[in-house]
Structure formats: C-alpha cells, structure tokens
Amino acid sequence: MPRPRRRLVSTCIGSVTAGLLATGAALAAPEENRAEDSGIAMGAYLDYGPNGVARIRQLSRWLGGKDIRVGHTYLPGDQWAGIEGRVSFLEDWARWRRADDDRMFVLNVPMQARNEERVSDQQVGRLIRAGAQGLYDEHFRRLAERLVSLGVPDTVIVLGWEMNGVTYTHRCRPDPANWKVYWRRIVDVMRTVPGQKFKFDFAPNRGTDAIGWTKCYPGDDHVDIIGMDSYDQDPGQTFDDQISQPYGLQKHVDFARAHRKAISYPEWGLFRRGDNPEYVRRMLGWIEQNKPLYHTITDYCPHGVWQCKQNPQSSKVFRSALTPAVPGPVTPTPVVPTPVVPTPVVPTPVVPTPVVPTPQVPTPEVPTPQVPTPQVPTPEVPTPAVPTPQVPTPAVPTPQVPTPQVPTPQVPTPVVPTPQVPTPLPEPSTAEPSPVVPSPEVPTPVDPSPSLLEPEPEPSPEVPEPGTPSPEVPKPSPAAPSPVGPAPVTPGPAVPKPEPTPTRPLPQPQPQQPPLNSMQWCVPINFGEWLSKLVGKQSVCVKIDLGEGSGFWPF
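and the corresponding structure tokens:
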C-alpha cells in the first residue's frame, strides 16, 4: 500500500536509527511461550539494499533462531535503468540467495517508468497500449538477462503489484484489456532468456479498490502465484470483514484454488489503526490455516513489529507466534530394573511312536526234490544172506537250493547172527585179550537217481544183541558219520538197487596165550554209554616181563 518513493526516502533518512533499533532488538531475550514452526517460508521487507540483507540475520536472532527464508526488495521505478536491474544492491541479494538452496528471492518489478508520479488515467492508458504493442520489451529482456547472470534465475517476480489501486502508473483501471496483453507480453519476453526459471506473482490489493482485481487477471498460462497485499485498514472494520468482503481474503483463496495456483502475501502489516495485536494474531492464524507459498511483513513504521517501536503489543504477539519452540530440559526417566522371573521349564511329553507291525508276507514254499539216502552195505559177517543194514547218511545239500532235513523212515534192522566167540575168563595174572574186529568189506554205495528211488524204512535205533557176545559195531550217527563208512558219492543215473552180498565165514579169533613167566594187567576204561557205543570198549594193559633177560627171573 505505501508508495515505493516514500519507502526509499524513509529508509535513507532513518538508516542509522533503524540500525540502532535493530541492535537493541536483537539483544532482547525471547519469551518462554513459543509456537511450533509451521514450515511456511517467512520473510520481511527490512530495506531495499545491503542493509536489508544484513538485517535478516538480526531478525532471525530476535525470533530465537527462526529461519528467515525469504529476502524481499523492490526495483526503483523512476527510470527504465532501475527496471532493467542496473542497480548495485541486486548483487548483495543474489549473494545471499545463492548461499542456501532453501532460500527464496522475491523482487517487485514496476511495469512503467515514473511509477509514483501520479500520472493521469488518460496518460496511463496510452502507456499501457504502447506496452501491449511491444514498445518496452527490450527493458524486460535486459532485466531477465541480468538476473540470470547474477545466479538467481528462479527469482519470484511480483510484476505490476497492486494494479487494482490508484497509486502506481502501472495500474489496470484505465485499460484492463490492454493491461492484460501488456502483462503477458512482459512474461513471454522474460521467459525467452536462456536459463531462466522465473515465477510470476499476480498480487492485487485486498478489496475492490479502484477495480475488482479479477478483471485484471491475465490468465493461468502467464501466472504462477496469486498473491495479495493486505494491511490493517479499510475496507473492513474487523478482520472478519477483511475475510468476507468482496475481493477480500476469502475470495483470494477461493480464486487461487479454482485456478490451481499457489497463494502468497508479499506485503502485510499494521497501518491505519495503530498497535493492533489482534490483527497480527488473526493474520498469522489465517496464514497458518491457508498455507501460502511465502509471506513477508513490511517491517518499518508504521507497519512493522520489529524495527518500529510504536507497536509493542503487536510486536509481542508476532514474536511469540513465530519464535520456534525450544524443548525444555530432558529429565531422565529412572530406569527401574525389571525383575527376572524364571520361566518354569515344562517338560515336553514324550509321545511314544506307535510301532506299526510289519505285515508277515508268507514265503512261498519251494518244493524240495527228494534226495535218497545213500545205502551203506552191511559189513560181511559169517552168516549167509544177511541184508545190508541201512545206515542213515546226512542230507546232501542241493546246490543253491536250501534243503530242509527230511526225516528218514524207520527201517527195521534185521537180526544179524553173531558168530560164537569164546570169552576168555579174566585171571589176575593174565590180561584180557582185546577182541579183534574184522573190518567188513563195504562196497561203495551208488546213490540211485531221484526219479527211481523209493523211500526206505529207517533202521531201528535199537539192535537186539544175541546171547553170544559179538564185536560192537559203532552205530552211525547223522551228526557224525561212521569212521568205517566211505564218503558218499554223488548218485548217477539209473543205478540198480544193491543186492545183499554173500558173506564169507570169518576166521575164529584165537585167544592169545600170555608169555611164560610174564605178568600183564588190563584195566577196562568206561567212556560212558554214548561214547562207548561210538568207540567201543577199551582197556589199558600194563605188562611186567619176568623173563630171563629181565633180571627178575628167579628160576
């Protein structure tokens, strides 16, 4: 709202005073109650030149370390040289901006020279039409090249601000249609400069003023941000009036939302109603509610809250709201050790694994061929026509075929008459003669073919002994074959059944006569019933020679 010429004059006159005020304000202690940082980019207009850059740090310290992210200044609009950016203080602002990528540089740019000389509406109309025809394009091309060369190609340009009022030569009311054409032409020219990333902010006054600001809107293609300058003055007696009035704060927010544009508040502050802390509180609340891209308070008298000491209550509200909250001392929480409760060990139950019985698969019975028992001929004895006793022979295993033991049928043993052998009477002085057992001639048995043999009856284990003693023939056993039996021979095919062999008369054993004048003692040895049957009766004889040459001959 205040005219730029008055801003520049007041800044030059009161630069020393403002510096002293800033120094004193920077030393003030922050208050206890501090608000949370909203994260919205915040700044203040502190001065147009190097002093404004230097005061940013002091304002930050006064706000308890608040990050001042927005640097805001104006180009002088008295001559085209100033509008082209041929002023030295741009270098200071560009240096500050380049120091941190999170910072934002906002630059108000007039659209006409002699911008505050109160040119008439008729003359303003002619200037607007000249600009729409491209007469001033070169001035704005030079400004764009200047900003790109300084390293600030992303500058936010508030072009022709407060165009709906009556103050500036770049006002809109004398010719709204050509004013919009002129705006678009300036934007197009500046966007043709290589490397530029400018954002153009359309920022009218709050309220209707000379013309409703929506009638000056140049279109979405040439506007990036829709801003609004709002001071504590008419129209609107209260802050609620400022919100609801035609072209007021609510209209601004709604219009920007409808056009999908960000909002901003490049200028706001106190003005006609003096120190008004309620206005400051409500305006900061509105900003927090609607989240503008940025906002900057105009901080010199009568508008400001830091450099201007005329508004102490408003200053207190502003500082309390924007000072970052400082966390209080951290009280360590006492660590209470948690008692360790032993966990009872629960034994895991042992579940027996069920034994699944293996099904018995019956083994198929393999028929075993019948192997005939080899016939052992009876030894020759003096009795004629004696049938050969059947001597059981152990089973001959068939190769690769397990043969079970087949019981041999019992065959009655014929009674073999034993020749009469005289038994010598034992005498004490004579030894009992051992019977001489003639070895019977046993023919080699030939095993009959399995296909021709018939099962023979098994001989009876008990052989009746005649009254006449006979030499004992060891009984063959299946486990131990007879020592006198020949080894079985593998049967050949088609062997006829053996016939009994006629026996020859055995010679009669003669009792041995003991030598004359000799002594012989024989003692029988008993091996038990079973072994005696196997090896026969045995005796041990001791002979004492009493012959002539023995040395014991008495006669």
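(Above: one complete record from the training split.) The radius of gyration is 72 Å.
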